[in-house]
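Changelog note: in this version the structure field was regenerated for every chain. One regenerated record is shown below for reference.
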Amino acid sequence: MHIPPYYKNTSWQRFFAGVFIGAILAFAVFLFMYGTLMEQRIEENVRLQSELTTLEDNYEILNKDKEELNEQQKKSITVQSIEISFINEKKLLSEHKLDRLSVYKLRDMVRKQLPDTIGQNISSLSENTSLIYSSIENRSYQVDDSTYEVKVERLVIAPTFKVSLKIDFVKN
């Protein structure tokens, strides 16, 4: 039995080359789609973990201080939650100096600098604003291979403690 020599025919050579190139292109498209979906899933997972740890920390702090601050809460207003926002976040995201995952990590690191503010009296926090400024600003935040510093632009002490920060890129 004899196998015909199709590999010598130019039309068959073009067909096999097209199949080979098509397989490579299909694999590249598959890798791109898979990578995009995985990036979205990882970003959503990090965001949800960040929210979960924040809620767990708030829950522990509020339960721990509930009995001690029960009398004081009747007389004065306390901080119930912390809201951290970055002023130049969109600019750094558009310039590709920062990605969303790093923003979540930075927000978590800054939030960990302020764990004892939840449940505290607003008047006592307003007396110690310089301490809050220094606890946030006098630290370099290491995210992956990049180092960032933040500067407090605005601080609102109310039942929702709001901190507006400016991110400064130190080094990569």
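Spot check on this record: Residues 2 and 32 are 43 Å apart (CA to CA). The mean pLDDT is 86.
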